[in-house]
Amino acid sequence: MKKKYIVLISIVVLLVVIRLILPYVLLHYANKSLGEMKGYYGHIEDIDLSLYRGAYIIKSMHMDKIDTVLKKETKFFNSEKIDVSVEWSALFKGSIVAEIVLKSPVLIFTKNKVELEDLQKDSSFFKVLFDDFMPLKVNRFQINNGDIHYADNTTTPRFDLVLKNLNLLALNLTNVTNEKVELPATVTATGSVYKGTLTFNMKMNPMSNQAAFDLNAEVKGTELKLLNNFLKAYGNFDVNKGTFGMYTEMAAKNGKFKGYVKPLITDLDVVGPEDKKDTFFHLTWEAIVGTVAEIFENQKKDQLATKIRIEGNFKNPGTNTGNAVWELLRNAFVHALMPIVDNEINIKSLKKVSAKSK
């Protein structure tokens, strides 16, 4: 009996020691892996374990991009907390999968003179990161109160576009439930865009060999005046007032896709008393921009809009420019486009898409 007690106590002590040491071992491994990633450098402040729910919590993580020429680090990603755990609800369905929750993450896409931004490369980085830190397949992914930036330091003035208060929830990414449904996974998101709102809804099949999804999204109520640095940088003009909205639907299946993008501007004012200090040439350019906008504006609704249809296949995508121009004129002189998602695109509408891009 004495030997049994000694063995039992030894096992308990060993488990306690492992529990105390394991977070430091994981932290060392994680920081070593982040420091060796090609093109990036990252660091984690601390890791906590929660064994009773099969989870670990990454605290204060940041990742920087490293310029391949100047070896200069540029801020790329940081998160206050990342909770990685086993999804217990999936266990009752016979699947061992993971869920990841990011608290207050910030993602920054930066364009610079040395290295053009590669969104595909930056997006694939997260897949590699999650594969390293989570051996299980991720079935549930959540973002709470995140920000996404696009900054350009090569323009005058410099600008930083930002989507704030992003809340995103992706469910059933490994198709644990609804196996017979064509698009079993869902992604929903909301956010704020310069006093406007973003709403995003998508159904998809992440297990399909070819892209298969059905989405709709809208941005509405964005104040254009708050985007003046962006407008000055790329258009060399600013606005005194105006509201921007954009509505879109897209669907894809078997290599084909179909959809539309409908941008809409209301109550636009380019030239006003605020521009009296502008130079003559700048004021002339803004007057031209304002006049063109006025010509193509729907006077009754005081809005400028068009509807750009996109249809074809992923090997030869194309946009019907003629149709976009026609919609612009039709909106100006016939009737205003309604500022809503039209609910005319879904995965069933792809049956009408020809093999060639229209």
The N- to C-terminal Cα distance equals 83 Å
- Give the low-confidence spans: 113-117
Q: Sketch the major β-sheet.
A: 14 strands, mixed
Number of domains: 2
- The overall pLDDT, averaged over residues, is 81
Helical coverage, percent range: 25-40%
Strand content: 35-45%
Radius of gyration: 26 Å
**How many helix segments?**
6
Structural class: alpha+beta
Query: Tell me, what's the shape?
Result: globular
SSE arrangement, N to C: HEEEHEEHEEEEEHEEHEEH
Structural write-up:
By secondary structure, the chain is of the alpha+beta class. The chain has 2 domains: 1-177, no CATH class; 219-358, no CATH class. Helices cover 25% and strands 40% of the residues. It contains 6 helices and 14 strands. It has helices at 2-35, 88-91, 119-133, 228-235, 280-295, 321-333, and strands spanning 40-50, 55-66, 73-86, 98-103, 106-111, 138-152, 159-171, 185-193, 196-204, 213-223, 241-253, 256-269, 303-305, 308-313. Strands 1, 2, 3, 4, 5, 6, 7, 8, 9, 10, 11, 12, 13 and 14 form a 14-stranded mixed beta sheet that branches. The longest helix is centred in the first third of the chain and has 34 residues, at 2-35. It is globular and about 95 Å long. It starts with a helix and ends in a 25-residue tail after the last helix.
Features:
single chain; 358 residues; alpha+beta; 2 domains; 14-stranded mixed β-sheet; 6 helices; 14 strands; 25% helix; globular
Write the layout of secondary structure elements.
Elements: H1 2-35, E1 40-50, E2 55-66, E3 73-86, H2 88-91, E4 98-103, E5 106-111, H3 119-133, E6 138-152, E7 159-171, E8 185-193, E9 196-204, E10 213-223, H4 228-235, E11 241-253, E12 256-269, H5 280-295, E13 303-305, E14 308-313, H6 321-333
Parallel strand pairs: 4-6, 5-6
Antiparallel strand pairs: 1-2, 2-3, 3-4, 3-5, 6-7, 7-8, 8-9, 9-10, 10-11, 11-12, 12-13, 12-14
